[in-house]
Amino acid sequence: MYKQKNILLTPAVFKLIVAIVLLYFISSCRDLVQDEFPDFIPVPTVNSILIAGDTLRVHVSLSGKIEKEQLNWVNNAEVKLYVNDQFKENLDYFNEGIYTSQTIVEPANTYKCKVLIPGYDTVVCVNSIPVPSQILNIVHINNAGKDEEGLTYPAVQLTFNNNVQQERYYEVIIRLFQYDYEYPGQIYTITDPVLQNEGLPIVIFSNELINDTTYTMLINYTTGSAASSGNDGWHSVLYPLIIELRSINYDYYQYVKQYYLYETGRFPNIVGGVVTSFPLYSNIDNAYGIFTGYSKVMSDTIYPESQFYK
Fold first, then answer.
1. Is residue 1 included in any domain, yes or no?
2. Tens-place pLDDT, residues 177-235
3. What's the rounded Cα separation, in Å, for the pair 191 and 185?
4. Structurally, how many domains does the chain consist of?
């Protein structure tokens, strides 16, 4: 006589079965990726971030294979600097493909570099950086909200001036100081409409939606530390901070946004996630790379009133 036997499926067994099934599907969906690539002709790569008030530095290298760990530095290039189309100087070779100038970068000037590498076409890069916008006011909010676990997070309310007659681009850096160590504050949840319009969880934005000569932006952030006192629950530990407002040009704006997508595509956050290829933004003639920059203003050090300093 046929008898049916009931099997008790405990929660632990159920979780184990689900894990095995997921592992099977993840592994079965992977194809062999090509790991051998044909030889190619190296292409010059030139990178420089111009910062107002600092000297100009240019890094020159040659592109290499994907598995190559060290860049092919170029130490025999001739790098000519022009300011407003007038020859200024030949940059000096420093080390590891870096060439330095004696010229201090100033806003509104146009900077051009001609890079001559033996065996290659002349590389040309041109750009200018905007006049800095000014910080008008900063309000620090110790408890701007709570995350899903009930941990409070702070925010900064930043007011700055804006030129409505121009397309302007900005970046905000929150610099936190713990003892003698400096690190950037991490953006938590974006509620500001200007930042939401950008579609990325970074504080880089245009004035597309700013229709006034001033704007007040709310930036929620986390410090990465938490503490509890009595029955008040968990709070973010607050540290002294400096707000840096960068006035950036269009190429910097495009490069940083594209670089974020590039890094996200290389290292997806979910296990078994799809690795998507995003190209890096480039504005160099006859080469790869980026030639861009920014001017900046910085606040005084802000000391939030909190019992959670360390």
1. no
2. 988 899 999 999 999 999 999 999 999 999 999 999 999 999 999 998 888 766 667 78
3. 16
4. 2
